[in-house]
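ok, trying the design again with the full structure, not the truncated one.
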């Protein structure tokens, strides 16, 4: 199946708050609620594969890979209603002529003026994907502007979202092409007269360099960029890399699809307060069905990898495509694309133990009724400590001639009693 707004500073603040909210311990039990089931009929989209974002007033924004007025994907908004439900509005339907982009896989970000930015994995002038901006209009509605059409030499088929630096420049990755045909890291800089100038910061695939980055990028405090590649490296099964002043350094090469250290990271990374990096791999680990890993910088240089959890042991989930988020107590949360009680994926929590190590708890197993299945995307918190995400399939409605269901937006709420909880959410 894979195939009223925010400023930069405020969006960054909310993103930090989203991983340091009131949650301070393991959830005892959870209640899942489907906020929207995509129907794929008419203007609604279907098959969302990206994470969501909030605006300052609590509306959710995301993308769907398929559907919309023309069938090539959408950008949507979900607005909470007074009676407790949510109302979906399609902000943009990507068009069949392709010049505005097709098939958005990645999520969105806001700028200081409340404009939305994202990527499409195909379409555009050359068919290799785009970077786009959506601008809210005074009378309602949104206007789309294509900021960049990838042409192959600068990369192609971006699967990841974008990141702003403090100066308002955009950064992202492409999965393919560039100088060595295995993807790029690019920067877009706004020009004084309008428009944007693109610079390719790195082309992957030269020697034991990584290849095919499908994840977005993060910054450290010094402005260095960090990310993952799904392939390449010394052993051909992916890397974690750092980009400093245009120079790339591979921090870790995963050893084998069947190795204990994990393989094929599709998701991006997060830092903890001590400067350690955390991520997931799609394969590898003790049961070959993926891992959660930590990279710790060494005093003399270099990084040490530790596997915090190996998926595939029973009903704990399998094959995580998405990245992780922290809560205030240092617990990690994420999704696994498959596995769980019903074999359609899970939401999980990893809790550090007093003696070292981490304990995994499955918060929800997808596939029981119309609750959604195949969560490709990561999670976000609201201010009350509830989790939100998307599933690429499942829900109430059938799509693609009834071959599968269209996908959902879901909310996961803790149910009391919790042990040492400080959630403000009632059951």
């Amino acid at each position: 199946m894979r195939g009223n707004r925010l400023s930069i500073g405020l969006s960054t603040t909310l993103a930090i708050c989203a991983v340091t909210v009131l949650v301070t311990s393991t959830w005892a039990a959870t209640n899942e609620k489907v906020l929207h089931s995509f129907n794929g009929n008419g203007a609604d989209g279907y098959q969302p594969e990206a994470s969501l974002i909030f605006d300052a007033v609590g509306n959710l924004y995301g993308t769907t890979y398929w559907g919309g007025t023309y069938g090539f994907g959408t950008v949507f908004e979900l607005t909470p209603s007074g009676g407790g439900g949510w109302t979906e509005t399609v902000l943009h339907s990507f068009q069949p002529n392709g010049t505005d982009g097709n098939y958005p896989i990645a999520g969105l970000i806001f700028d200081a003026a409340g404009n939305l930015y994202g990527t499409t994995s195909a379409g555009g002038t050359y068919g290799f994907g785009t970077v786009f901006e959506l601008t809210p209009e005074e009378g309602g509605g949104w206007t789309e502007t294509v900021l960049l059409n990838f042409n192959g030499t600068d990369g192609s088929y971006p699967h990841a979202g974008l990141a702003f630096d403090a100066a308002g420049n955009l950064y992202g990755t492409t999965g393919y092409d560039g100088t060595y045909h295995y993807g790029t890291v690019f920067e877009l800089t706004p020009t004084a007269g309008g428009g944007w100038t693109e610079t390719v910061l790195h082309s992957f695939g030269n020697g034991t360099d990584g290849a095919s980055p499908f994840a977005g990028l993060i910054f450290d405090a010094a402005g260095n960029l960090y990310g993952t590649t799904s392939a390449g490296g010394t052993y051909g099964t992916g890397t974690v890399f750092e980009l400093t002043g245009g120079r790339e350094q591979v921090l870790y090469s995963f050893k084998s699809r069947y190795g204990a250290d994990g393989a094929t990271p599709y998701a991006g990374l997060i830092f903890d307060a001590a400067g350690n990096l955390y991520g997931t791999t799609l394969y590898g680990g003790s049961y070959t069905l993926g891992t959660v890993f930590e990279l710790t910088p060494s005093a003399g240089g270099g990084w040490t990898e530790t596997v915090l959890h190996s998926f595939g042991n029973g009903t704990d989930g399998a094959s995580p495509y998405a990245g992780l988020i922290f809560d205030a107590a240092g617990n990690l949360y994420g999704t696994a694309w498959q596995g769980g009680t019903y074999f359609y994926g899970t939401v999980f929590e990893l809790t550090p133990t007093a003696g070292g190590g981490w304990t995994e708890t499955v918060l929800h197993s997808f596939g029981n009724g119309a609750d959604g299945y195949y969560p490709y995307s990561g999670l976000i918190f609201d201010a009350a400590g509830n989790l939100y995400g998307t599933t690429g399939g499942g829900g109430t409605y059938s799509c693609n001639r009834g071959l599968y269901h269209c996908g959902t937006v879901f909310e996961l709420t803790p149910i009391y009693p919790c042990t040492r909880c400080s959630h403000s959410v009632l059951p």
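Keeping the full-length input from now on. The helical segments are 8-18.
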